[in-house]
Specification:
Keywords: Ribonucleoprotein, Ribosomal protein. Forms part of the ribosomal stalk, playing a central role in the interaction of the ribosome with GTP-bound translation factors. This protein has about 90 residues and is of the alpha+beta class. It is built from 5 helices and 3 strands; from the N terminus they run αβαβααβα.
Length: about 90
């Protein structure tokens, strides 16, 4: 992946997550495509978005947002689930 593409992805992550009130980091390891689609559909019904992210790029984005410790939590296959609604539903 070129540096320019990585920078574009980081900028997209920054703009997407800088104002999000509620999010959790998911360990996506071992989840197959069918399970992933079911999970996304069920969460979408609750107005929760899930995005699989490249760990190193997510770490850079959260560092630039001002939450560097969060970037250290990304391991293995990670995804971010976000919602601007009730944080209990997200959990």
């Amino acid at each position: 992946m070129s540096k320019e593409l990585k920078r574009l992805i980081v900028n997209e992550l920054i703009s997407e997550y800088k104002d999000i009130k509620n999010f959790i980091i998911l360990n996506y390891k071992g989840v197959n495509a069918i399970q992933s689609n079911i999970l996304r559909r069920e969460l979408s019904e609750k107005d929760i978005k899930v995005k699989v992210v490249k760990n190193s790029l997510a770490a850079i984005a959260f560092k630039e947002i001002g939450i560097p410790a969060l970037g250290q939590m990304f391991e293995a296959s990670s995804a971010i689930a976000t919602s601007n609604n009730d944080p209990v539903v997200l959990g």
